[in-house]
Amino acid sequence: MSRSVLVTGGNRGIGLAIARALAEAGDKVAITYRSGEPPEGFLAVRCDITDHEQVERAFKEVEEKQGPVEVLVANAGVTKDQLLLRMTEEEFTSVVDTNLTGTFRVVKRATRGMLRARKGRIVLISSVVALTGSAGQANYGASKAGLVGFARSLARELGSRSITVNVVAPGFVDTDMTRVLSDDQRESILGSIPLNRYASPEEVASSVRFLASDDAAYITGAVIPVDGGLGMGH
Ligand code: NDP
Known about the structure:
- By secondary structure, the protein is an alpha/beta fold.
- The chain has one domain (4-172, 201-226): NAD(P)-binding Rossmann-like Domain (Rossmann fold, 3-Layer(aba) Sandwich).
- It is built from eight helices and seven strands.
- It has a seven-stranded parallel beta sheet with strand order 3-2-1-4-5-6-7, with helices on both faces.
- Helix 2 runs parallel beside helix 3.
- The mean pLDDT is 96.
- Bound molecules: NADPH dihydro-nicotinamide-adenine-dinucleotide phosphate (NDP).
- NADPH dihydro-nicotinamide-adenine-dinucleotide phosphate binds at residues 8-9, 11-15, 32-35, 47-50, 75-78, 98, 102, 125, 127, 170, 172-173, 175-178.
């Protein structure tokens, strides 16, 4: 199996682990990056998912170099944490524009080829915060919860064409995004995680690889928690 895969934000963190896992499984993997030097071993396309034109250009490049995208992993995301009363409208809308509308941009573009091929796999990276909420993350939580409604609507819309749309909801994962937390914050978070540790990016990647595989052909509209039990009872 050597499918054309695109992972947004695949240059570091969870996205890079997903790109590696799918490449190891034999797929041709393209990643998006915004600046700096992308990691070697993948087709790297520069793309800011808040910009429609850049998304269009990135897909064209991937299509030319490795074929229409058959597996899309929408992983790129940001946080701009702030308590509601201090949160500016820009802090709210920019997080939604990246995490939710950015995902809309790439998913919409990817489905063009998938509809033609009458098959496809779409995996969205949400968060435990989508379902449990998190003080100081109203913008992030709203954007990540939006992904669940988005995915489930698309699962209904695209199912008849054998396109599956699923969500992975990680808990706390050891990446740049969580390294900014203080030791106190880290300690208190660990206390609420039944497995009492953060996930590695590879542990999130395993679930994505499964959802993208033939073994998951009958799974669509699912939200898979990879959170050490943090969100138990979702
Ligand atoms: P990182 O901050 O390490 O990486 C974020 C990635 O998203 C980078 O590749 C970054 O690109 C990319 N990105 C951000 N904004 C844009 C944009 N506008 N256009 C294109 N790419 C963009 O985060 P993680 O690896 O930790 O997170 C990956 C995903 O997992 C995110 O969606 C995050 O919300 C989610 N998640 C993370 C958790 C965690 O504990 N770490 C928990 C739950 C969910 P660049 O390098 O150019 O900045």
